């Protein structure tokens, strides 16, 4: 799932200045849980230094579309995947270790999915 923009809500208490509270949409929170569960089945190989990541996102093609490729921007797909891997904590300590990133998105007639390859930089 592409990473959506954070949502904001205003919390106003009587006699106090209103404050903004930011949160992720429920659908994205559910996707993060699914991604975490999927990662648990992947053997971990901790990387201490720089690495490169390749991500291929296969998106279910709607019955009718005039689009050549799925929406939204490809970087929104990458952000969610990198955040899920970072949150898992078994592959790297922070996605700032990623020094090279290749991302693609494509329609699929079959089951949608995300394919990720991580390589340690030498």
What's the structural blueprint in terms of helices and strands?
Layout: E1 7-11, E2 19-23, H1 26-40, E3 51-60, H2 74-88, E4 98-108, E5 113-120
Parallel strand pairs: 3-4
Antiparallel strand pairs: 1-2, 3-5
Give me the count of strands.
5
Distance between the termini: 31 Å
Radius of gyration: 17 Å
Residue ranges: pLDDT <50 for 5 or more in a row?
none
CATH classification class = Alpha Beta
By CATH, the architecture is named 2-Layer Sandwich
Task: Tell me, briefly, the overall form.
Answer: globular
Sheet of most strands: 3 strands, mixed
Structural write-up:
The chain has two helices and five strands. It has helices spanning 26-40, 74-88; strands at residues 7-11, 19-23, 51-60, 98-108, 113-120. A three-stranded mixed β-sheet has the order 4-3-5, covered by helices on one side. Helix 1 (26-40) crosses helix 2. The radius of gyration is 17 Å and the shape is globular. The mean pLDDT is 86.
Q: Care to give the gist of this entry?
A:
This protein has 122 residues and is an alpha+beta fold. The protein is 25% helix and 32% strand.
